[in-house]
Amino acid sequence: MLIALATTLVTAAIWLQLVYTDARRMQVDATILLLEQVEKMAREGETVLASLNALDHTRCDRATLVAMRKALYFSTYIKDIGFYEQDLLTCTTGLGSIAQPIRQGPADYTTPSGYRVWTDAQLLLFERTHPVLLIRQGRFNVVMERMQFTWMDRPMMKWELVFRHGEQLTNVSGQPGIYRPDDHKLANILPLSGNFQHQLCAPGYPRYCAATRLGWGDILSSHGVPLTLTLPVSLLLGSLGCASTLLVLKRRMSMRPRLRRGLASGAFYWLYQPIVDLQSGHVVGCEVLSRFRDDYGPLPPDQFIPTLGKIGLSWQLTSRMIRSTLAELERESALPAGFRVSFNVFPQDIVGDAIQMLGDIPEFRRSRFTIALEITEDEYLDDSRAQDHLHALKELGIHIAIDDFGTGYSNLHLLRQLPCDVLKIDRSFVMDMEEHRIKSSLIPHIVEIARQLQLSLVAEGVENAPQRQALLDMGVGYGQGMAFGMAMSAGALGRAVRPTDRAAGETTDELRIAPAAG
Question: The EAL domain covers which part of the protein (predicted)?
Fold first, then answer.
């Protein structure tokens, strides 16, 4: 009897764990799917509005209505399109010309790109009004149904979609008050209420954020957990539960769940690799390197960094890294003002809107250091949005460094268009120097490119004194690598900056450009 009771209790506990795991997986998936739909809707709205405004129509005539209806026909989420004259809505695809033009009230919010949004507008269609989402730019608006989010309405889950502008939040859809603006974690438990919260922001449109909330009572009632279990069923479910538990543990140990939990639990930490003046040996800056360790052990950067980009968590890592490291380095009084702190950023954050939120980070605004962003040379730099964002970052005083130069999408014409300050020579070039391989023979050409474009040069992977001297002789001014110290803590970095470095005032603002050859 005791064995049956024990088996029943164990089986019930395993069953509850499986039910909880399934509900939480559904919650996370629903949050991600909601934001994916938001991104698709926003992207479609931007594309249609841009194409219509480019036609430069000034009044609602037949040509204007034809263009609007053509755009509507090829749209997935847009249900109506309107046209404005002197700030009055004069025609729509659904109603045609409006006898009494309509003046709309103030928008609920305006995006940084200038799109005005009404979250609960009323669309008159077939003598009935429908609650809609209305987006306007220039002379046109697009209308999308709020009903497109109703698939999120589930008995056991509450949810909210919000738009963040500064310290303010605007409810776009769902139940107001679910999203918690003071909580930057991806997943957390609210112990007082017995609820489970999950929050996430859209990777491509990071001002749109979603929150979902589950309660134990709702989870149990939704899954209909049996209150009594007979001994044979308990034994059977116990066996199945053991197998299921192994699957759950395997899932918990897989990389993607580990990374999501790691962002919430502090499994990420950062080290600092010194950047050194090859001539004087002074430490003039550092590169911030991401590391990961949780209860299952460490993960190497070349595995977790690409995975973070694929699952849409790149900006969450980057913003947390910038906040944490700048706060930590600020406490190191040995580091002088203007000390260069360099961060690697994901390509999708440069192309998307996420990087625009850098200026909202308090630690960045208050920092006494010179901030540099390292970007890899790739096809995405051809994107006009990426170039616009880089120029905007430059106006904030941020230095732009091209990382691993010479190994990727090398394009000298494109390089001339970018507001970059530094070229970083990939370690593979430096490693080949002592054996005089073909790759190392390209370093003088890189030095000449840097000289022509008035850029500084930093060589990666410098491991010994002969490499340092050879790089100096070629005209490379700065280096990093094991010859100057491995990646270290903030305290060790502060001790590595000698008093003579601080007296010399060596900062990134004064990094020398590559000298003329010869």
Answer: 252-501
